[in-house]
UniProtKB/TrEMBL annotation:
<keyword id="KW-0489">Methyltransferase</keyword>
<dbReference type="GO" id="GO:0160117">
    <property type="term" value="F:tRNA (guanine(6)-N2)-methyltransferase activity"/>
</dbReference>
<dbReference type="InterPro" id="IPR053943">
    <property type="entry name" value="RlmKL-like_Mtase_CS"/>
</dbReference>
<dbReference type="GO" id="GO:0000049">
    <property type="term" value="F:tRNA binding"/>
</dbReference>
<feature type="region of interest" description="Disordered">
    <location>
        <begin position="145"/>
        <end position="170"/>
    </location>
</feature>
<comment type="similarity">
    <text>Belongs to the methyltransferase superfamily.</text>
</comment>
<feature type="domain" description="THUMP">
    <location>
        <begin position="169"/>
        <end position="285"/>
    </location>
</feature>
<comment type="subunit">
    <text>Part of the heterodimeric THUMPD3-TRM112 methyltransferase complex; this complex forms an active tRNA methyltransferase, where TRMT112 acts as an activator of the catalytic subunit THUMPD3.</text>
</comment>
<dbReference type="InterPro" id="IPR004114">
    <property type="entry name" value="THUMP_dom"/>
</dbReference>
<dbReference type="Pfam" id="PF01170">
    <property type="entry name" value="UPF0020"/>
</dbReference>
<dbReference type="GO" id="GO:0043527">
    <property type="term" value="C:tRNA methyltransferase complex"/>
</dbReference>
<keyword id="KW-0819">tRNA processing</keyword>
<keyword id="KW-0808">Transferase</keyword>
<dbReference type="InterPro" id="IPR000241">
    <property type="entry name" value="RlmKL-like_Mtase"/>
</dbReference>
<feature type="compositionally biased region" description="Basic and acidic residues">
    <location>
        <begin position="155"/>
        <end position="170"/>
    </location>
</feature>
<protein>
    <recommendedName>
        <fullName>tRNA (guanine(6)-N(2))-methyltransferase THUMP3</fullName>
        <ecNumber>2.1.1.256</ecNumber>
    </recommendedName>
</protein>
<keyword id="KW-0694">RNA-binding</keyword>
Length: 512
């Protein structure tokens, strides 16, 4: 394997190999007990990409996978030896270990009786094996935190030694931008379907008390775990709210384990997922979404890394493919591609110089992390960033294998009115650079009416293969998987040019 491939692999995968030996010696989990332990793992995925995530699980973990009727979730069985590999999945947002799945929970006719059932349920659940997995998972997180702190210290030393001379204003600006990351990402992180999400722990009053004697007692008693309960409820036939379910179930969990309730500084997050008559209790294995990777410089509509991976996977990249994102924004799609499909070459382009700059900075940040981890210079990633005009790309006709991009929705970026001219022009230029017969494209947009109209005038160059319906920050969007037809691209001129302009509103200027 070349140095480039090796460095890229290190960027892609969370390096948990060193932790695998610690799996069997985790405190209070003897090797004989955990060696053959099998559990069910649940994962949340971008809505609409459940099948893509299930395919990745089958491919990488060799495990059967079930897609939940509750959209955006999949379930699969693993042995504990595969726990590290689970964290390397690229298509999943959050992970949890299933305590028990109740497929046909019989809800009583009154709220009081239902909440009483939730209280009694806490003491009947098989907590033992899931808690063992949670402890093993905690050992992973501790080692990852240590490595992160070490990397931060190395970076600080580099700055102190003059290796990276940055203006103090730039550092403050970067810290300010990072503080806004959560707000920006909310655009892509709102629940995919209408559901209630409440987080409560035991007695609500317990989470509000900050008495000095109580907090000092908790700090000196490492044996007492802190926890919270998060309830995700979807369905219209429930006589209770997610708030009430989390409160009563959380109180029973607190009584059962004698844990301390804490809304923010918790050790264990218990999940109560309710979808119609299905109830699943789990324990969270991730503190923040796994899609928060690779990107350090965010734009107004930064795409989830998990969604970027799913779009790329739909196109089935092959070795030596040229993959282009002509409207890359912060570079989430090509960066995800370069870390997973390192034997392809990825081009990130945008007409906005600020976007290209962000993409370049994100690429640079990944290389820096790799160099710190390896302790040596890296040959780089198979990726480049360039500023260009989407309607007049500086690429040869028929030179690109795959096009994957997040097109302007016309809300935060661009406008619906502009899309009527932009979309057909983009599709036409994409058809020019894409290889006839073998080229393919995965295009994300919420402006489905405009896209469908633009595509209808180009059936001779693009053939729609599949549509994946997704929810992006509460917006109903679609990923269109297209194949390039075998027809050779011909530059329009004369009467053909006028006909195309009339059909799709393309403004051809100096295209030839």
């Amino acid at each position: 394997m070349s140095d480039v491939q090796e460095a890229t692999n290190q960027l892609l995968h969370v390096n948990l190999h060193e932790n695998q030996r610690s799996i069997h010696v985790t405190e209070s989990v003897p090797r004989s007990e955990s060696e053959h332990l099998r559990v069910t793992i649940g994962a949340t995925v971008p809505t609409g990409f459940e099948q893509v995530a299930a395919d990745e699980v089958r491919e990488k973990l060799r495990s059967s996978c079930k897609i939940s009727k509750d959209r955006g979730k999949i379930y699969f069985d693993i042995s504990v030896e595969s726990l590290a590999q689970v964290h390397r999945l690229r298509s999943v947002d959050n992970l949890f270990v299933v305590v028990q799945e109740l497929k046909d929970f019989q809800f009583k006719e009154t709220k009081e009786k239902v909440l009483k059932d939730f209280e009694e349920l806490a003491g009947k659940l098989p907590w033992s094996d899931p808690l063992k997995v949670w402890k093993m998972n905690t050992s992973f997180k501790k080692k990852k935190t240590k490595r992160k702190k070490l990397n931060q210290n190395l970076s600080k030393e580099k700055i102190d030694n003059g290796g990276d001379k940055r203006d103090e204003r730039d550092v403050k600006k970067e810290l300010s931008n990072n503080a806004l990351d959560s707000h920006i990402l909310d655009y892509y992180e709102k629940p995919a379907i209408k559901e209630e999400i409440s987080t409560l722990v035991g007695d609500v009053l317990a989470s509000c008390k900050n008495e000095d004697d109580e907090s000092s007692k908790e700090d000196t008693d490492p044996e007492v775990l802190k926890f919270r309960v998060t309830c995700n409820r979807a369905g219209e036939k429930h006589c209770f709210s997610s708030n009430e379910a989390a409160r009563d179930f959380g109180g029973a969990v607190q009584d059962y384990f004698k844990w301390k309730a804490d809304m923010t500084n918790f050790d264990v997050e218990v999940l109560l997922n309710i979808h119609d008559n299905e109830v699943i209790v789990g324990i969270a294995l991730t503190e923040e979404s796994l899609h928060r990777r690779n990107i350090t410089h965010f734009g107004p509509t930064t795409l989830r890394s998990t969604l970027a991976y799913g779009m790329l996977r739909l196109c089935a990249p092959q070795p030596s493919d040229i993959i282009v994102d002509p409207m890359c924004g912060t570079g989430a799609i090509p960066i995800e591609g370069a870390t997973e499909w390192f034997n392809c070459f990825h081009i990130a382009g945008d007409n906005n110089p600020l976007a290209v700059n962000r993409a370049a900075n994100n690429i640079s940040s990944l290389l820096t992390k790799s160099q710190i981890k390896e302790g040596k210079l890296s040959w780089g990633l198979p990726i480049d960033a360039i500023q260009w005009d989407i309607c007049n790309l500086p690429l040869r006709t028929g030179s690109v294998d795959i096009i994957v991009t997040d097109m302007p929705f016309g809300k935060r970026m661009g406008s619906k009115k502009r899309n009527w001219n932009l979309y057909p022009a983009c599709l036409w230029e994409m058809s020019r650079i894409c290889k006839p017969g073998t080229g393919r494209a995965a295009l994300l947009t919420q402006d489905k009416k405009c896209f469908t109209k633009a595509l209808s005038g180009m059936e001779h160059v693009w053939r729609k293969v599949h549509t994946v319906w997704v929810n992006i920050g509460g917006l109903h969007a679609a990923v269109y998987l297209l194949n390039r037809t075998p027809q050779t691209f011909v530059h329009p001129s004369g009467q053909d040019k006028e006909e195309l302009v009339h059909k799709s509103g393309i403004a051809f200027e100096n295209q030839t």
